[in-house]
Amino acid sequence: MTTNGWSLQARDLTRVYRRGSEEIQALDGVSLSIKKGEFVSFVGSSGSGKTTLINLLGCLDNPSSGELELAGKTVFGKGKRLGEKELTQVRREVFGYIFQNFYLIPTLTVQENVALPLAFFRKPGGEEEVERLLKMLGMEHRMNHLPGQISGGEMQRVAIARALVNSPEILLADEPTGNLDTKRAGEIGEVLTELNRSSGLTIVMVTHNPELAQLAGRRIEMRDGRAFENQEGVTT
Ligand SMILES: Nc1ncnc2c1ncn2[C@@H]1O[C@H](COP(=O)(O)OP(=O)(O)OP(=O)(O)O)[C@@H](O)[C@H]1O
Ligand SMILES: [Mg+2]
């Protein structure tokens, strides 16, 4: 998919979770547009729909209604949905994901964890790239350690390296500094800011950390499944 000058456009997205007879309206009509090179932060209280929204934007989940467009192409909506094959391609080529709990594989070393997407997508010659990223993140001296042998902040940096190894256009980060102290969180913030500034990486980040949210050029607040920007409802 050609994504030059793309934007990611959500229109009236809703997501209802069903558990037995119970229905939870996690998203209640979110419309927003994210452009290439932006650094956007989503803030809001627990349960306000941040993870739900970021998963939808990252094409990892299907909305209950509404539309999502990437680079002018409909991912969901208008009665259409991108095919499984194309969805897989978008997930692998356009997005890099940092999940709320990092999901490092405990039996693989730092180096192997970062290389995992390369192996998974059968990309050869990624060894240098893995080393380059780990070096950039100040983790080259921990390459052969297991996740259980490094600190929380270091695990977070490994998760960032892994999310970047496929050279994504958009980095989706769900609480990239969750559970970290101020100093470590600040370090992650510096890395993300630098990536956005120097390589124009688009970053969409969920955070509870006000200092981290401050680093992003744009701040969107989630409240009860709705998105607010500058006190107004977010529009396209
Ligand atoms: N798989 C699911 N099944 C049912 N309900 C869910 C599911 N996932 C999330 N929810 C509910 O949807 C709402 C939004 O959840 P979401 O995970 O998006 O919140 P969040 O803003 O990311 O919260 P946190 O800051 O705690 O991570 C919550 O009420 C949550 O309990
Ligand atoms: Mg969440």
Give the helices and strands, then pairings:
Blueprint: E1 7-19, E2 22-35, E3 39-43, H1 50-57, E4 65-70, E5 73-77, E6 80-81, H2 84-93, E7 95-98, H3 110-120, H4 127-136, H5 152-164, E8 170-174, H6 182-199, E9 202-206, H7 210-215, E10 218-223, E11 226-229, E12 232-233
Parallel strand pairs: 3-9, 3-10, 7-8, 8-9
Antiparallel strand pairs: 1-2, 1-4, 4-5, 5-6, 10-11, 11-12
Helix pairs in contact: 3-5
GO cellular component, one term: membrane protein complex
Domain ABC transporter: 8-236
Keywords: ATP-binding, Nucleotide-binding, Transport
Structure description:
The protein is an alpha/beta fold and 236 residues long. It has a domain at 38-60 and 89-229: P-loop containing nucleotide triphosphate hydrolases (Rossmann fold). It is built from seven helices and twelve strands. The strands form two sheets. It has a seven-stranded mixed beta sheet, sandwiched between helices. It has a five-stranded antiparallel beta sheet with strand order 2-1-4-5-6, with helices on one face. The longest helix is centred in the C-terminal third of the chain and has 18 residues, at 182-199. The mean pLDDT is 89. The site of magnesium ion has 4 residues, from helix 1.
Question: What keyword list fits this structure?
Answer:
ABC_transporter-like_CS, ATP hydrolysis activity, ATP binding, seven-stranded mixed beta sheet, binds magnesium ion, AAA+_ATPase, 236 residues, nucleotide-binding, binds adenosine-5'-triphosphate, 7 helices, Rossmann fold
CATH superfamily of the domain at 38-60 and 89-229: P-loop containing nucleotide triphosphate hydrolases
Give the CATH topology of the domain at 38-60 and 89-229: Rossmann fold
What number is the mean pLDDT? 89
Please state the CA-atom Rg, rounded to the nearest Å. Answer: 18 Å
Total beta-strand segments: 12
* Second-tier CATH architecture of the domain at 38-60 and 89-229: 3-Layer(aba) Sandwich
Share of residues in helices: 25-40%
- Unreliable parts: none
Range of strand content: 25-35%
- How many strands, which pairing sense, and closed or not: the largest β-sheet? 7 strands, mixed
Tell the overall outline. globular
The computed structural class is alpha/beta
Along the chain, the helix and strand elements come as EEEHEEEHEHHHEHEHEEE
Ions, cofactors and other ligands present here are: adenosine-5'-triphosphate, magnesium ion
CATH top level assignment of the domain at 38-60 and 89-229: Alpha Beta
* Spatial ordering of strands, largest sheet: 7-8-9-3-10-11-12
Separate helix tally: 7
What's the end-to-end separation, in Å? 23 Å
Keywords: ATP-binding, Nucleotide-binding, Transport
Protein name: Macrolide ABC transporter ATP-binding protein
Organism: Geomonas silvestris
Domain ABC transporter: 8-236
